[in-house]
Amino acid sequence: PSRTFHGNNRLLTSQIISHYESINRCKKELPEYFNFASDVLDEWARLEKDGRKAATPAFWWVSGEGEEVQWSFEELGCLSRKAANVLSELCGLHRGDRAIAVVPRVPEWWLLSVACMRAGIVLIPGTSQLTAKDIWYRLQASQAKCLISSAPLAAALEAVLPGSPFLKSKLLVGPGSRAGWLNLRELL
Q: Which Pfam families does the annotation name (predicted)?
């Protein structure tokens, strides 16, 4: 029996299972290259724009204080392209480079996840509970070229940054500024 996911009657469980079973049985060809940002998000934005898909939020975030951020597929696509440009052009990252994000789960965390997918940058997520020693180890082991953090967390991270020879850039998300750090909000 099929049932709907999240009230969307176009996405039936049996259809999804059938699709993946056909891939597993080699009845559907897998693309040589797949990029979630361009192949899924941009396609959904196009379908909404053409009126072939009902407009629904691609992203909806609510903070503990009740602040809401809501992006359509088109807005998420546009913002993620801008963020990918910031990472590529201003942070100097290329396809395959690694970036460590020590950021609370704010909207920019998801935006940067999509931007990294779009640009082919490997995002290494880190929790705000990591110690300076944990961050230093991750920077060395991953050879990350960019560190992404919020202003309050950046102060604690700066102690380990001089010992990281691979680090090229530091990017802040959210409000605030620090010397030597780029601010994503300002750059977008």
A: AMP-binding
Interatomic CA distance for residues 14 and 1, integer angstroms: 7
Which amino acid is located at 53 in the chain?
K
Q: Which CATH fold would you assign to the domain 36-186?
A: Rossmann fold (3.40.50)
Contacts of residue 166, Cβ cutoff 8 Å, sequence gap at least 6:
139, 140, 143, 144, 145
Which residues touch 112 (CB under 8 Å, ≥6 apart)?
83, 87, 99, 101, 103, 123, 148, 173, 184
Query: Helix, strand or coil for residue 41?
Result: helix
Task: Give me the phi and psi of 62, to 5 degrees please.
Answer: -130, 125
Instruction: Please tell me the distance from the alpha carbon of residue 146 to that of residue 6, in angstroms, as a whole number.
Output: 36
The amino acid sitting at 13 is T
Residue pointed to by tokens 């990591």 = 130
37 DSSP assignment: I
Q: What is the pLDDT along the chain (188 residues), one digit of tens a residue?
A: 333 444 444 444 555 556 566 666 666 566 778 888 988 899 989 998 898 888 889 999 999 999 999 999 999 999 999 999 999 999 999 999 999 999 988 999 999 999 999 999 999 999 888 888 888 899 999 999 999 999 888 888 888 888 788 999 999 998 888 999 999 999 99
| Location of structure tokens 């779009």 | 118
